[in-house]
């Protein structure tokens, strides 16, 4: 077994075997009869590994996860929608803006995992005890503490800001000599995690509630519902009825996972959609405002400026 082979995750080897293809320099090119794109994998050491997936398959696959280890306390970071749209498929859906999901291993013990037909992610797995050793334990936020202890099922989602996106771009695009590649990518993976944890620690959570798969699926159903019709403001009691839980629990779990209240989250995506529409230059400022459910255009301008940093007129001229 050569040195490179030892640094390739088993999940990538399993996928290569399934597609009847070879891994070269830790990279699997998807054979044309199955789709297009690539998948790269890296085992940096016994504590941290990374999988970069940027591909389209003609159909979903289900494969056994050869790396599952229930005894190990791992933290999972899934960076999604992080590649430029031109590489995979065009589109400007604000629901597909770059984001990252962070989960404790209590939510990731599935033996079989789906290989979805369209993948635009970087997955990083880190041993919780290894990460814990890099921090001062005394004065951590509840979110940081819950992740590092990794004794309960938790999940958080965070929108990717420019500083995080810059590190992602370096991971994906930087040309590095093979002698330095593993070293370089491990440092970048750790930088990505560090910057993300700095952002998560800013969240104002005094107490966290352990989650179950049903709660998580329901929060993502509610999130999709909110983003489906951005011209219609969410009604909490209707969403709570759909989720089959009290309004208090709905609001609490939504804020815990997404780091924002339901209405503020909705408003943020509404303004991102407005920004996308204005960038297309197909609609006037008033048309965009009306399209997104604003009857008062001065109110639209005020909300837009709060979220985007300039008024819609300035933005559309930029």
Kindly list the characteristics that best describe this protein.
single chain; 318 residues; alpha+beta; Arc Repressor Mutant, subunit A; eight-stranded antiparallel beta sheet; two-stranded antiparallel ribbon; 13 helices
Q: Your description of this structure?
A:
This protein is an alpha+beta fold and 318 residues long. Helices cover 45% and strands 19% of the residues. The protein is globular, with a radius of gyration of 21 Å. The protein has an eight-stranded antiparallel sheet. It contains 13 helices and ten strands. It has two domains: 199 residues, no CATH class; 105 residues, Arc Repressor Mutant, subunit A (Orthogonal Bundle), CATH 1.10.10.
Q: What is the quaternary state of this protein?
A: single chain
Gap between N and C termini, in Å? 55 Å
Order of helices and strands: HHEEEEEEEEEHHEHHHHHHHHH
Tell me about the biggest sheet? Answer: 8 strands, antiparallel
Mean pLDDT over all positions: 87
Order of strands across the main sheet: 1-2-3-4-9-6-7-10
Radius of gyration: 21 Å
Secondary structure: number of strands: 10
Tell me the number of structural domains. 2
Q: Which band does the percent of strand residues land in?
A: 15-25%
Low-confidence stretches: 86-91, 109-114
* Dominant shape: globular
Decide which structural class fits the backbone: alpha+beta
- How many DSSP helices? 13
User: What fraction, in percent, of the residue positions are helical?
Assistant: 40-55%
